Amino acid sequence: MEIKVHDRILEANIRIAERNRELFKRKGITVLNLIGGPGAGKTALLEASIPLLLRRFKVGVIEGDIYTSRDSERILALGVPVVQINTKGACHLDGNMVESVLSDLPLDELDIILIENVGNLVCPAEFDVGEDAKIVVMSVADGDDKPQKYPLIFRLAKALVITKSDMLELAGIDLDRLKDDALSVNPKLEIFLTSARKREGLGGWVDFVTGMTTGRT
Ligand code: MG
What's the pTM value of the predicted model, to 2 decimals? Predict the structure, then answer.
């Protein structure tokens, strides 16, 4: 019984997400849905990447958070349009929540919308919001076992951004194992190793977003 309700919720969500996707397509906006656990460095990745993307593109941000607007305030400091969604307890954004804030973004001006989803690797994977691609974000400190433990998001994502590479040695993870496991779940996954703090490894990731936006990827 509970499973049927869950299926109906997912079906209704897909219809709204498709509506969002058509709107984004009509407006020529590339939309990336960043999904990662708390502390994975999603906001820091945005802070480091957006100034590079702004050289070529107009970027807007949707910040998903359960209660606060702390991440939005950090993004606002970059001078880009940002809207906040507080899910009030829900562990993910859905199509309806995203649709409801789109009128607060200057859609006619934007080339890219980056969505920071609520911090976890489970429920955000299940809910399409109309994005062009899901991006899984995890830090070297998250351990090398995540692709096996949370295969759905690794299967659905187009790219994996590994953050906090400056902590790689301290974290003591097996980076090759992490990459191999991620690729065994999703052989097409593009993988980038970055440090927002050191501003390292961002070029490949920014090129990927650029390719998505100009239709080369
Ligand atoms: Mg954040």
Answer: 0.95
